[in-house]
Design goal:
Blueprint lengths: L1 H13 L10 E6 L4 E6 L5 H10 L2 H4 L2 E7 L9 E4 L15 E4 L9 E4 L8 H7 L6 E4 L17 E5 L7 H6 L9 E5 L16 H9 L8 E5 L5 H10 L6 E5 L10
Parallel strand pairs: 2-3, 3-5, 4-6, 5-7, 7-8, 8-9, 9-10, 10-11
Antiparallel strand pairs: 1-2
Helix pairs in contact: 1-2
């Protein structure tokens, strides 16, 4: 496809020999009826802009089946590496998109990965979901706002979300939603800005987790992974008791870190 060839040529043209492996690169599989794209590069540079410009063209957006976005770990500004997805809203639709993945945070990263034009998610994930009626898997580093949960979306089966800079009531909103009847695999990374005083005040309450476990929205879930929870071990055990292991695989992942201040 001409548009994809032009994208690859432009990214090759933008390569800086001094950056070596940190240069942007894109892998494209074009099967005619479906297109799969894996982009690795800075979300702040021209290569990413070129990618977005290509993705919203009807010849590409209509066949895009999977999209993965990642970047070198050193990329960031003021401790943040933000993926601005607003340009993707220029597409009329992504009717074939089934898998959309943006890199999530890892323990040794010194730049927090988020979705946002600056620091806020601004509802962009809900707007993209609306344009992707066949989406089955969504993996993102920021929690969507409440608009995400007002959409009927019968195909989403895998949802992995990091809270980012604002959990936006993700667990509570999901508990109150009936929009995802086929959701089988759920992952949530708790708000984890441990350097902020009283950061736990912004974390999800035990009461919200109870609402989720009791909800109709959670009934179909078979695998639940909770990363860096800020609730007590006894509370986790209470949640576990609410759903027998024969019906739910419940995994806890902990890698929270904190900075040591000099005296």
């Amino acid at each position: 496809m001409k548009e994809l060839d032009e994208l690859m040529g432009k990214i090759f043209e933008l390569a800086n020999p001094d950056l070596e492996e940190d240069n942007a690169r894109v892998s494209i599989l074009d099967f005619g009826k479906s297109i799969h794209i894996d982009f690795h590069g800075s979300p702040f540079e021209e290569a990413y802009e070129c990618l977005c410009d290509t993705l919203i063209k009807e010849q590409v957006s209509g066949k895009l089946a999977s999209l993965r976005l990642s970047s070198p770990m050193g990329e960031g500004a003021n401790g943040t590496r933000n993926w601005d997805l607003m340009p993707l809203l220029g597409a009329s639709d992504f009717p074939s998109l089934r898998r959309f993945r943006i890199e999530q945070n890892v323990p040794d990263s010194h730049n927090r990965v988020i979705v946002g034009s600056m620091y806020e998610e601004d509802g962009v994930l809900g707007l993209l979901l609306q344009k992707s009626p066949r989406l089955e898997s969504l993996i993102v580093p920021s929690a969507p706002d409440i608009r995400f949960f007002g959409l009927k979306h019968p195909s989403l089966s895998h949802l992995s979300v990091d809270a980012g800079y604002d959990a936006q009531g993700f667990i509570r909103n999901l508990a109150q939603s009936l929009s995802f009847p086929t959701l089988r695999n759920l992952e949530f990374g708790e708000y984890n800005e441990t350097y902020i005083e009283n950061f736990s005040d912004s974390c999800t309450s035990f009461a919200d987790y109870v609402k989720l476990f009791e909800s109709e929205a959670f009934r179909a879930v078979r695998n639940f992974t909770l990363r860096n929870p800020q609730i007590a071990e006894t509370s986790i055990n209470e949640l576990r008791a609410m759903r027998p292991s024969s019906k739910l695989t419940f995994q806890i992942v902990k890698w929270s870190s904190s900075y040591i201040k000099a005296a």
